[in-house]
Structures are given as structure tokens and as C-alpha cells.
Amino acid sequence: MAIRFGSAMPNLYSARDPRATGRFCPSCGNPLTVSGAAYCRNCGAPVTPVIWFKTNLEWNPWLALFVSILPGAGQVYKGYLFQGLAWLVLVAVSYTAQPLGVILHLLCAANAALSGAIDSRPLQLRRTSVRQLFGSK
């Protein structure tokens, strides 16, 4: 006699049934009927994580990254003198404890290039639409 493990019942939900995917649009709240959907069929909003960058910056992120060869110079280029000096001291002291110095130097360069360049507006729009969906204030 053979012993079976697991359920003999087939999956009751088809691949196009929202109960099968368990995913909902973050903008409009409608269920996503296709399991690998990148955009909502109803409103067209992206449903995969997307990072939006600002286009109207007063500084160049690539230049801020490049000048961060000297720790803190990217922050000084952006106008944050105290933050740049703090990064310079922190990275210089941490270079005595390798590999911490290299890691902090890379974090300093990433901070110079990306802080202020990532647009949080799409996240705020998504939060307000979810709040409106559930009626909270």
C-alpha cells in the first residue's frame, strides 16, 4: 500500500483569480488578477517597487559621488559643510579599523550622491490613496 503525503485536491483557484495571487494595487486597491503583473490593469500604476529620482536638482549626483573620493567632499559640494566635516573625521578614524573604514567611505559616497535625490512623492501618494481606501484620516 502506497502512502501519499500532501493534498489530493487540486488548486481551487485559477491563476487569474485575485485570491490566488493575494496581491492588491497599492494605488487603487483593486486585486491584481495576474500573478506576475508589473502594472495595475485598472489604474496603470506600477505595482513593483520603483525608486523615483528627482530631476530638478541644484547639484549633480554623479559629481557628488566622484568628489567623495575625499570623504565628506560630496556633502560639502552640496552645501552641507558640517556634515561633510563629520564624515571626513568619522571615515578617517574608522580607517584604522579595516574593513570598517572602506565600508563607511562607500556609505559616505552613497549618502552624498543619493540623499535628497530620491523622490518620496510616489510613496506619499500611495499612502494617501490607501488611507482614502480604508477611510482613515
Write the layout of secondary structure elements.
Blueprint: H1 18-21, E1 52-53, H2 61-67, H3 73-77, H4 81-94, H5 100-114, E2 118-119, H6 121-134
Antiparallel strand pairs: 1-2
Helix pairs in contact: 2-5, 4-5
What does this structure look like?
There is one protein chain. The chain has about 140 residues and is mostly helical. The protein folds into two domains: about 20-50 and about 120-135, no CATH class; about 60-115, no CATH class. About 45% of the residues lie in helices and about 5% in strands. The protein contains six helices and two strands. A two-stranded antiparallel ribbon has the order 1-2. The N and C termini lie far apart (about 60 Å). About 15% of the residues are buried. Residues about 5-15 have low confidence and may be disordered.
